[in-house]
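Subject: Sanity check before I submit

Could someone independently write out the structure tokens for this chain? I want to compare against mine line by line before I put it in a report. The sequence has 407 residues.
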Amino acid sequence: MRDETAFADLFADLRSLATYGGETGGGVSRTAFSKSFNEAQVWLAVRMTEAGLQVHIDAAGNLIGRYGPPGPAIICASHIDSVPHGGRFDGALGVLSGLAAFRALKTEGHSFARALEIIAFADEEGEYFSLFGSRAMLGLVHAQEVAAACGTRGIFMADAMREGGLDAAKISAARRPASDFHAYLELHIEQGPVLEERGFDLGIVENIVGIETLEVTFNGRPDHSGTTPMRKRKDAMRAAVAYCQRCYDEADKDEALRLNFDDWSMTPQALNVVAERVRFRQEIRHPDAAALTEFVVTAERIAAEAAQNSNATAQLRVLARDEPAILDASMRALLRHSAAARGVRFLDMPSGAGHDAQLFASICPTGMLFVPSIDGRSHCPEEMSSPEAIRTAVTVLCDALRALTSE
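---
Independent answer below. Compare away.
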């Protein structure tokens, strides 16, 4: 891709999109279906239309721009919603890079034998549902689930969608048959330090981790913290702390495993009362489905032991599970060829983050490119990729889209 105008437009678009939900210090808070998200959707729809795409927003809030003949399309997608106080590149770079590549292909007079769709999926980050937009498009979300979902801001999903002109009860209208999709390609920042540390220009994703989300609850008994001996307590907090530490210890034994904890609540909220109940969420990630399941079994055992040692009880409940995905060999070969032809140093690598691509991997040939992240930072205002790295990745993306839409 040698279209300097397309690159200039891409960098200008990145700056413009960052103003929607932009914060002092360079961060972005543009959670799904928020005011800033809805405004960004309108802005992006205009940019897509100006580029020559036929644009619409589906029943799930996915923004779709299409160009080319009828029939199964090549999908180039990512997302423009962000985590709270996140960065300017996560997701946004993927959508805008697809748009830049499309502009460049049109400028060079490319004949689209197969249609191209640029898609910005709604709520990839999980304000209400992780990978919501792609789940809805593939028929993996139901209206009852949407009606019950409440976001981190305390707003029900159906109410938030209504503010954007969407009816949550009609979510099934977003579903599309697998025959609509010929192939799927996504460009994304790495969100980790591997490419930069090892001196590679580009990552070609081989597989995407599976993710299991648990709700963990420990129940004890409220007693006076000053007069109740330690040995006599039924202490939910002590059980929770012991559980988390032992999970960390187990995770340290497996280089491929990742875990995290969030959304803590404690009852009662009083420093002079022993905790009666502690509840939190736990996320477990692993590229191997069997290893993911095995760790959940281990977590159940650890919870039971931690509860027993603290005279408490434990309950683990599975909230969600996304299976690991292996990306298509032919798509990886195409991306390798495109990179090698440009003299780009690339690394075949796994993705430790979840992406919309993992859902499409079971539907159609799917590929994914990673752009190096400076210092490995992501989900923070310091999130950054260099202009040179972006140019390299978008050039490879454009070459791959040229080949895919020529079939």
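---
OP: Matches mine. For the report I'm noting this point. The first strand starts at residue 54 and ends at 57.
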